[in-house]
Amino acid sequence: MNQAEPLPVPFDLHYRAGITLHGLEGMSAAAQESLGTQTDPTLIALETARLSGIHFILGEGLAASEQADRALGAAQTLNKSDLLPYWLCLKAAILGYQGRYQESEKAFAQAEKLFNAAGDPMGNALRGHLFAREYLRDQRQFAKAFEYLSVAFQVLRAKAPPALLIENLLTQADCLIHQAELRRTREVLSQAETMINDQRSGWYKPELLICKSNLALIEGDTRNAIKFCREGLGLIGDTGDLRTLSALYLTLGAALERNKAREDDIRDALERAITTARARSRKLHLALSIRQMGLHLRRNNIRSTVRAKGGGYLFEAEQMLNEMKLIEHFPMSGTSSSSQQIL
Q1: For residue 204, what is the DSSP state?
Q2: Cβ neighbours of residue 119 under 8 Å, at least 6 residues apart?
Q3: C-alpha–C-alpha distance, residues 214 and 224, integer Å
Q4: How far apart are CA 255 and CA 250, in angstroms?
Q5: For residues 117 and 120, what is the distance between their CA atoms, to the nearest angstrom?
Q6: CA-to-CA distance for 91 and 64, rounded, in angstroms?
């Protein structure tokens, strides 16, 4: 792998080596302070985009979206044609995180046109990677997402920072899991894990462990699925991506249920999945956490009051999935198959 080339703001930060929660919070404070005193329009635009990226990495979707809109407006006003497609990708990724998929797809398409016009293969590869990760996966188009990721990886591997390559490999692995390509999944996960260890990239370890847990669930190995989730939860904090917290609890809850664990432990995991998702998570992960709680209460209780409570959860989840136009992929039935219990 050749020496990485720097990516434009804010992706230079997003894929920086050694990223930590403490460091991000410090950079957020510095960016806000700079915006309060800066007078140069170009520097204001750059700091605004940087702040948007920080909010996004921290899982703060609304704040990230607001700052991205300001940055895009400034880029258009200042005619920053080199930055505009990158910031459109940022906005598109944030929109996917918020479950605003039609807007996300439109922004990605606009970015693609600008990258093609500029003859920027690196930018277009980043766009393809983010389009697969933040849009196609949520649409359950895993085969198509894998194609985009594979094509992007061939371009990115020459000059992209290692963190971006790790993220790409983990997303590839997730797509392969959902296609039941288990042998290939293990190969890609091994490659990603080697890079994570070589780069000491603690930020991506929780996501790696979610993939490992989902793979174990598909294979019927619930004990290891539980172990991987708990290991991932132990890594969340200063060095682990906070956005994975709800997904880890949701996967843990599904694994505990399949392992016939204590009812209190299952409910605790699912309640934590919902609570953390309401604070800081993809909208889809929130909907799936609520759905999983509803399905669990309906499946595993004979008391009418508890089943009614489960119905309330399912009603809320159905509303959210309808809003995102994803309801066809996530039925509100009582199925407990492994394919329905992985993210």
Answers
A1: G
A2: none
A3: 10
A4: 9
A5: 8
A6: 8
Mean pLDDT by 10 residues, the chain (343 residues): 80 90 90 92 96 96 97 96 98 98 99 97 98 98 99 96 98 98 98 96 96 97 98 90 96 95 95 96 96 91 82 96 96 59 66
Structure tokens at 119: 């003859």
How far is Cα 342 from Cα 1, in angstroms, rounded to an integer? 33
How far is CA 155 from each of CA 6, 117, 227, rounded to the nearest angstrom? 15, 18, 35
Give the residue among 326, 258, 259, 256 at the shortest CA–CA distance from 291. 326
- CA–CA separation, 328 vs 45, rounded Å? 40
Structure tokens given for 229: 């989730």
Instruction: Tell me the pLDDT tens digit for each residue of 120-152.
Output: 999 999 999 999 999 999 999 999 999 999 999
DSSP code of 2? P
d(CA 318, CA 327) in angstroms, rounded, equals 7
User: Could you tell me the pTM of the whole model?
Assistant: 0.95
